[in-house]
Amino acid sequence: MKKYFIFAISFILLFLIFHVLSGILLTFTFTPDMAEAWNLRGNLSQETTINSSLTSFLLTLLIAFLSATIAYFIPTSIRERN
């Protein structure tokens, strides 16, 4: 049971850390096109729409897989130290 709790806590923490880091990376690499935004200002909708894409889902799935893989090996490394 202890092994499961270590895995679950490790997975949740790693998943959150990877999501924050991917958000920081995406924010730093984003370059807005101000000229195009200025030209489109009259055609903007007053409603907010939320669009989901397949790449977003695949990125989340990749982050979850990476987090689970690392979290799987954390209990064994803790056990080897003791």
TrEMBL record:
<protein>
    <submittedName>
        <fullName>Uncharacterized protein</fullName>
    </submittedName>
</protein>
<keyword id="KW-1133">Transmembrane helix</keyword>
<keyword id="KW-0472">Membrane</keyword>
<keyword id="KW-0812">Transmembrane</keyword>
<dbReference type="InterPro" id="IPR016174">
    <property type="entry name" value="Di-haem_cyt_TM"/>
</dbReference>
<feature type="transmembrane region" description="Helical">
    <location>
        <begin position="7"/>
        <end position="30"/>
    </location>
</feature>
<feature type="transmembrane region" description="Helical">
    <location>
        <begin position="50"/>
        <end position="74"/>
    </location>
</feature>
<dbReference type="GO" id="GO:0022904">
    <property type="term" value="P:respiratory electron transport chain"/>
</dbReference>
<dbReference type="GO" id="GO:0016020">
    <property type="term" value="C:membrane"/>
</dbReference>
